[in-house]
Amino acid sequence: MLDIRWLEDLVAVAETRNITRAAELRNITQSGLSRRIQSLEHWVGAPLIDRRHAQIDLTDAGTKFLEAASETLARLNSARLTIRQDKTERLRQIRFAAPHILSVSFFPHWLPAIQTGLGSVRLSVASDNLPGCVGMLRDGTADFVVCLMDCEGEIAARADRSLAGEAWISVGRESLVPLSAPGPDGVTPVHALATATSRAVSYLAYSPECSLGWAVEGLLGRRPALTHLQTLYDNSLADGLRTMALAGLGVAWLPLTMTEGDMMRGRLVRAGGADMTIDLDIRVYRSQQRLSKKAEDLWQTLLTAQRPRAQPAEAIAV
Q1: 256/271 Cα distance (integer angstroms)
Q2: Is the separation of the CB atoms in 240 and 288 below 8 Å?
Q3: What is the reported pLDDT for 282?
Q4: pTM to 2 decimals?
């Protein structure tokens, strides 16, 4: 079996042209180096050095093999350095997977607090729908999944089963509010939700793969007397539904944090009462596998900072 040290020995001999000096460079006895060179020659099947003179020369076979040995060592050392750098970088990195809406509304405020508490750390967020995020947690490409769960359990019931066994921490609150563009008076919604009416209301829905839509569907299922909603448009992103709502095309259940400014400026108004609001919990799920030190430090910090769930919360600062 080839020993990588034999290749390094040959390179040292080729550089010094002297067994004694090569042995000193390799921190080995002269006899030990000679035996290792002989072992390499036996492995190659041909003499590699010419020992007839005080200044050692390589044989033709040795010259050819030296080129291959030098290239092999260079590639191995480069690969080792890259792997070590990747490992070091991985230990300093915390990887999140989250639905797009949280990347826009939650992480910009939460990530700076994390970095303040953890010091030098690289944070990355991959955006996907909830099943995609769960897949990243399962295959090890994400340390944590940050997602929204409704209090009625509609999202949890339809989320990937693997989340059921994962530990989680609540780190904030969100709400989905039914909103519409206002009418001429600036107060009355163009598309108002009501009961005991046969008038259809234009509805801007989330795409089937969007977990926010699962929560809205659950609410509508519990309100059989609600106005008939006629789906005009669907989108997997809340941003897309907000744009359509601002254009007056229908009612949409939109995150409160995203639309507070629109409501304050009168660009959007509530299309239904408080009973039409969906309360959401922002949760951080972790894998049961051992995480990097930085990721484990974050989890322990979140456990320490977790507030009682009975209290309303903004984002938990680390």
Answers
A1: 13
A2: no
A3: 95
A4: 0.68
Supply the pLDDT for residue 317. Answer: 40
Pairing of strands 57-58, 269-270: unpaired
d(CA 114, CA 2): 49
Give 181's contacts (C-beta < 8 A, 6+ positions apart).
189, 190, 191, 245, 246, 247, 248, 267, 268, 269
Residue 312 domain flag: no
Reported as a single tens digit per residue, the pLDDT across 200-215 is 899 999 999 899 999 9
Closest listed residue to residue 99, CA positions, set 268, 214, 180, 260: 214
* 211 & 82 share domain: no
Q: Let me know: does 26 contact 12? Beta carbons within 8 Å.
A: yes
- The answer to the question of residue 246 being in a domain is yes
Question: What band does 156 get if pLDDT is binned at 50, 70 and 90?
Answer: confident
Co-location of 75 and 180 in the same domain: no
Same domain, 34 and 144: no
Pairing of strands 93-98, 122-127: parallel
Give pLDDT, residue 66.
92
pLDDT digits (tens, 9 = 90+) for 249-308: 999 999 999 999 999 999 999 999 899 999 999 999 998 788 888 888 889 888 887 754
The count of structural domains within the chain is 2
**Cα distance between residue 278 and residue 219, in whole Å:** 8
SS3 at position 170: strand
Q: How far is CA 199 from each of CA 178, 195, 230, rounded to the nearest angstrom?
A: 17, 10, 10
Q: Report the alpha-carbon angle 279-247-250, nearest 5.
A: 50
Tell me whether residue 318 is in a domain.
no
Structural domain containing residue 31: 4-89
Query: What's the CA gap between 109 and 119, in Å, rounded?
Result: 16
Quick check: helix, strand or coil at residue 168? strand
